[in-house]
Amino acid sequence: MVIITIHDKVSTGLAGFDQAIDMLRLGDNVVWQVDSVQDYLKVVTPYVAQAKQDQRKLVYIRFGNHEPILNDDSTIKVYQVDATKGFESFASEVHHIIEQEGKRTFYVFDCLTDLLESWYSDLMIGNFFKVSCPFLFELDTIAYFAIIRNAHTYSTIAGIRETTQLLLDLYEVNEKMYIHPLKASERYSPTMFFPHLIKGPEAICISASSEIAELFSSINRGEERLDYWNVIFANAREALNLDQEQQNQTKRLLISLLIGNESRMSELCYQYFTLNDILNIASREIGTGFIGGKSVGMLLARKILEEDESNRFQPYLEPHDSFYLGSDVFYTYIVQNGWWKLRVKQKTADGYYQFAQELREKLLHGKFPDKIKERFVQVLEYFGQSPIIVRSSSLLEDNFGNAFAGKYESVFCANQGTPEERYEAFVQAIRTVYASTMNEDALTYRMNRGLFEKDEQMAILIQRVSGDHYGESFFPHIAGVGNSSNLYVWDKTIDMEAGMLRLVFGLGTRAVDRTVEDYAKIISLDDPLRRPLMAIEDEKKFSQHYVDVLSLSKNKHLTRRADDVLLNDLGIDKQLFAKVDGETLTRMKELKINHLNVPYILDFQRLLKETEFASLMKDMLARLSSIYEYPVDIEFTGNFKENHPFKINLLQCRPLQTRGLGKPVEMPKQLDKDDCFFSQTGNFMGGNVRLPIDYVVFVDPQSYIEQSEQGKYAVARMIGKINTALKGKNVMLMGPGRWGTTTPSLGVPVHFTELANMSVICEVASNDGGLMPELSYGSHFFQDLVETGIFYIAIYDGQQDVVYHPEKILGRENCLSTVLPEGAKLANTIHIAKTTGMEVFSDIVTQNLLCR
């Protein structure tokens, strides 16, 4: 119990009112419901005068568009806080002001209702109050706030009433001022909650029923209001009947609320979306706020294709019926679970990594407000038992400049079981996406790109999974990613501007990730049947062997052998996607192995040869790139019927982050092939370069292969430390197989953040250990390379036109222990050579690559 002494009591400046409420207490937040800002002034003025008389520290928080509450006064510190920057920026700045000003400060805030002009959401005003007032209370401050009567929802007022210490109605009736206390914590009298007439220094209690009835009958109490957000969109529907100019003005406003302020993406949305389109998007939003970058990219790309004058794409597009969880729900989830102070601490430079894990754990276990839970139930009822996917759609995601490829989670919900089980799985999927904002890769990505102080609200895209039931599994026939510019070419005849695809059978998770012992199909769209760099006998080895599906019996995402999945009736000839593996079949017969399963190789040859699929995807990428005026990266699925009619579901579209080809480079003449570290034709990505190399970090293939699994992970962690130690230098990282794999037997299992400072990475084929580079173009790993500006090389030693002399590095002194003394124990595996004067040259046109 808090014991209040006489010294903790503070005057309001109105002596009679002090007596009515037994004065103010240190720690009080005082909220006035008023009809106008002018009425608010009538109680602020005596409060400020009394505080000055008592020599209190006074602070005025100014953010409203109304006339200033307080005039210039050297005894009052004024902070101008910009509400238009959004809730998090505003609330954080106010938090820091309160922290800085410290204990027993007296505050005056502008009218909170003015925040509607910036946030358009009652919900967020309530959230601001809930995060600020407890902090003010902790510091024994007194703060005055105002809200306009009948301008907010009952739930907003209820939240304020619950949080504040005093809630007071202020009326002016017949030129008389009345104060009606609605809540007064830690104090009570028999007459406290009657209305009081303020008459000079007196506060006269109005207790007679006839007088109270007469007073209240003259006051407009108003009816239950919609959230201001809903009012804006309801009014916008009426604009559909107005002229085009008025519709455009309304459309511009709604785009700023759902999509964001002025940007290249918002301008494209304004150009392609009608007012009715925007209203339809809003009708499928849960909560309020932005729908996020992934949702915007998907919707905009679809609209661009639908509006194509030739009607080239509309017949092939699978409809979507997605929902959008607004970004304000993310903040509400944090605020209402009591984690805002932790969030503020985590957003500081010192707390950025320190508090991330704690916040991540909390995000995985929070509760949602009842109104949001009701909407979740409605969404699940809408989808029934169709599988759905819950996808991140942050404000910074999939935009020009920042793709965040693979940094945040997407969670499949097979959506089987009882309604209660399906609901809990769905809500946990949302929590998982929220928690992924605190993943190490996401934190490092934001830090490296100078985004750690920016508001990163997480909206969510909820999509029906594209596909059908095949046996007890659910999946689409095909899925993949596409890029409108093919930056990785392995043949100088390839037309880079025709684009490329990374294609898989089943769910697209195997297309966006570097898969284990598996290969997606790489398709150069200028000639879809062109064979990648492999020998004919290696076709099966470098093909897809596993398929990702949703298991309806096990109610989860699973990986299954391709041959097992192909046993199902696919509703179409499976040889559209796969051919019989004749060599394996012949061997089985020779060995007299009776096997019911016919072995297949997923080669997609008939799909590419007999359908319009490849040409449609080429045209689709070209159309989107042309409108974006920028290369694009898409994710898609495809589903087929007999006689090959098909539908493409465009799941995602974002600007492809690329630094371009660069200016042509004059390649040096090579008089002696042995006079270089390596040279080859093709198998590189990163444009035309002439790049000096300060150090080469070389992982010896044989020594790495001989390491235990634990030893291989130790090598990976050491590479991460070297990556930090040599930051700022031009470093080439070379190693066997795939960098960034999750399987040590396929390459060095570094996280991308552990090689992000490198200038060049080389994946070297090691025939002895079976470690091979992977043409990972289109994967999240590839996107990270392009965004970070890392030049990529795959070296297939022994192939024609490949010259490779690792001894030119291994013959130099190993600087590992100098760069990182603790690395000496791995000196047999990791060799660091100082290579002053070494340069890498590449030419896109001739596909020549040279390092000497």
From TrEMBL:
UniProt xrefs under InterPro entries: ATP_grasp_subdomain_1, PPDK_AMP/ATP-bd
Keywords: Kinase, Pyruvate, Transferase
Top-level taxonomic group: Bacteria
Record-level Gene Ontology MF annotations: ATP binding; kinase activity
Domain (Pyruvate phosphate dikinase AMP/ATP-binding) ranges: 291-672
Protein's UniProt name: Pyruvate phosphate dikinase, PEP/pyruvate binding domain
